[in-house]
């Protein structure tokens, strides 16, 4: 079985979030199921610099106004097809925005080009390879099923929604330049509240839809979480599948991780204490026995970081310490910086992205806090389980699906792996933090929870099997 995966970022070549982790880890996991995956991604400057020997396998004389090539290469264990279009992708800044943080004005054209290239491959543009199915990730690739549909291709397609909040919405004026027939600007096409919706078009056109947890799949059929697309998603509920993400258990492995201070393989391994000591030293936290609560990720409203900031004084007064790594909303960044200044030794904040430090925080912190208002799946709590850091999570999306709350029944049965709370507000989070501190004060209970979490299967094994079954069903259906 041949599958073309289409994504705007792929770890470790380029990453801004969890989409890259999934796009990088799923293809190798699928190979065990007899599936050959090639990944189409944009030829950003940093991607081309890491390709080494790449071979041109197709040329576009006019791809949305520019010449472009498809390059074939292998990198980081992935079979890649890279869209080399310098006028679109050879730029300073990140995948979606310039160095000033402002989105590129032509993102609609850049990612329409990526999708059109995917449709061309599906239609047989490559001499020696044609996919049996196209798997598009998020809005940046979601137009691929649209181009395939209006080209009359019979190859099935799948769209995975990693976060419904990001939809790729653009003004109606761009439609004339998308190369689609006039009837595509309609309710069952790309028209969306008078404009053009890339994700909306993909959801309407794909053979099936997946999202990254069963709970989030249910949530996005409701107005509360559907972000204006709940009606369309309800209409396609029979084609909607929730499949929990996994993590790359070779990259995230405390027994061999070169980014941490000492390797370990069990909850009671003394080497884990060396990582705690290293984290305390790195972040200039007080060297005492108080629990260290960590947060790694984007500092945004969606992630509930305003609620964590509101709860910070209560956490410190209760005896806890807090370590933050991330970047995001300037007001939240400033708020956490001010808290670190006011509570030296009790609160530490690193603003930015540091992959190595994120591993050390998972290995050295006692607990990980994920207070998201909505969370399609979440990967950081899976990494926490793997590293023996007890997750404290909002009861939503994939967080609810992957963490077993430490209620009395779960504790008695020895299956608890963390703490859930709801709603996402300061009193609920404060209560969850207090529950965690009470458990931390009982070493046997805490060690048992950490051990149970470290036993959890957070790999791609089961999820890859589900994707393989879905692919086969869609291909057989035709």
From TrEMBL:
<comment type="similarity">
    <text>Belongs to the glycosyltransferase 1 family. Bacterial/plant glycogen synthase subfamily.</text>
</comment>
<keyword id="KW-0320">Glycogen biosynthesis</keyword>
<feature type="domain" description="Starch synthase catalytic">
    <location>
        <begin position="2"/>
        <end position="234"/>
    </location>
</feature>
<keyword id="KW-0808">Transferase</keyword>
<dbReference type="InterPro" id="IPR001296">
    <property type="entry name" value="Glyco_trans_1"/>
</dbReference>
<comment type="function">
    <text>Synthesizes alpha-1,4-glucan chains using ADP-glucose.</text>
</comment>
<protein>
    <recommendedName>
        <fullName>Glycogen synthase</fullName>
        <ecNumber>2.4.1.21</ecNumber>
    </recommendedName>
</protein>
<dbReference type="Pfam" id="PF08323">
    <property type="entry name" value="Glyco_transf_5"/>
</dbReference>
<dbReference type="GO" id="GO:0005978">
    <property type="term" value="P:glycogen biosynthetic process"/>
</dbReference>
<feature type="binding site">
    <location>
        <position position="15"/>
    </location>
    <ligand>
        <name>ADP-alpha-D-glucose</name>
    </ligand>
</feature>
<feature type="domain" description="Glycosyl transferase family 1">
    <location>
        <begin position="287"/>
        <end position="438"/>
    </location>
</feature>
<comment type="pathway">
    <text>Glycan biosynthesis; glycogen biosynthesis.</text>
</comment>
<dbReference type="Pfam" id="PF00534">
    <property type="entry name" value="Glycos_transf_1"/>
</dbReference>
<dbReference type="GO" id="GO:0009011">
    <property type="term" value="F:alpha-1,4-glucan glucosyltransferase (ADP-glucose donor) activity"/>
</dbReference>
<dbReference type="GO" id="GO:0005829">
    <property type="term" value="C:cytosol"/>
</dbReference>
<keyword id="KW-0328">Glycosyltransferase</keyword>
<dbReference type="InterPro" id="IPR011835">
    <property type="entry name" value="GS/SS"/>
</dbReference>
<dbReference type="InterPro" id="IPR013534">
    <property type="entry name" value="Starch_synth_cat_dom"/>
</dbReference>
<dbReference type="GO" id="GO:0004373">
    <property type="term" value="F:alpha-1,4-glucan glucosyltransferase (UDP-glucose donor) activity"/>
</dbReference>
């Amino acid at each position: 079985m041949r599958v073309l995966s289409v994504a705007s970022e792929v770890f470790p070549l380029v990453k801004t979030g969890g989409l890259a982790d999934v796009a990088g880890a799923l293809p190798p996991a699928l190979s065990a199921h007899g599936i050959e995956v090639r990944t189409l991604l944009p030829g950003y400057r940093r991607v081309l610099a890491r390709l080494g020997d790449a071979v041109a396998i197709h040329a576009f004389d006019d791809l949305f106004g520019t010449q472009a090539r498809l390059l074939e290469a292998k990198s980081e264990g992935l079979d890649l097809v890279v869209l080399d279009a310098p006028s679109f992708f050879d730029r300073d800044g990140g995948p979606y925005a310039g160095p000033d943080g402002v989105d590129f004005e032509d993102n609609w054209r850049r990612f329409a080009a990526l999708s059109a290239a995917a449709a061309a491959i599906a239609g047989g543009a490559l001499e020696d390879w044609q996919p049996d199915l196209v798997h598009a990730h998020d809005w940046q690739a979601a137009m691929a099923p649209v181009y395939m549909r209006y080209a009359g291709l019979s190859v099935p397609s799948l769209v995975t929604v990693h976060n419904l909040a990001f939809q790729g919405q653009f003004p109606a004026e761009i439609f004339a330049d998308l190369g689609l027939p006039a009837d595509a600007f309609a309710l069952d096409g790309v028209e969306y509240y008078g404009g053009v919706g890339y994700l909306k078009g993909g959801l309407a056109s794909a053979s099936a839809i997946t999202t990254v947890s069963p709970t989030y799949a249910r949530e996005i059929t409701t107005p509360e979480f559907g972000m204006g697309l709940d009606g369309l998603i309800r209409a396609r509920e029979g084609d909607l599948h929730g499949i929990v993400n996994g993590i790359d258990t070779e990259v995230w492995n405390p027994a061999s991780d070169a980014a941490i201070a000492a390797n370990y393989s069990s909850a009671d391994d003394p080497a884990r204490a060396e990582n705690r000591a290293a984290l305390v030293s790195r972040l200039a936290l007080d060297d005492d026995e108080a629990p260290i609560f960590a947060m790694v990720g984007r500092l945004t409203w969606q992630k509930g970081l305003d609620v964590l900031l509101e709860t910070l004084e209560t956490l410190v007064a209760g005896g806890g310490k807090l370590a933050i790594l991330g970047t995001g909303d300037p007001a939240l960044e400033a708020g956490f910086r001010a808290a670190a200044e006011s509570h030296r030794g009790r609160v530490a904040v690193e603003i930015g992205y540091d992959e190595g430090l994120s591993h050390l925080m998972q290995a050295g912190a006692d607990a990980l806090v994920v207070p998201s208002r909505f969370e399609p799946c979440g990967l950081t709590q899976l990494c926490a389980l793997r590293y023996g850091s007890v997750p404290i999570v909002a009861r939503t999306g994939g967080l609810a699906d992957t963490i077993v709350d430490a209620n009395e029944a779960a504790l008695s049965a020895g299956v608890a792996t963390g703490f859930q709370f709801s709603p996402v507000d300061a009193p609920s989070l404060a209560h969850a933090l207090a529950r965690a501190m009470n458990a931390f004060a009982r070493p046997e209970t805490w060690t048992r929870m950490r051990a149970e979490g470290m036993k959890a299967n957070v790999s791609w094994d089961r999820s890859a099997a589900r994707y393989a079954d879905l692919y086969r069903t869609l291909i057989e259906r035709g």
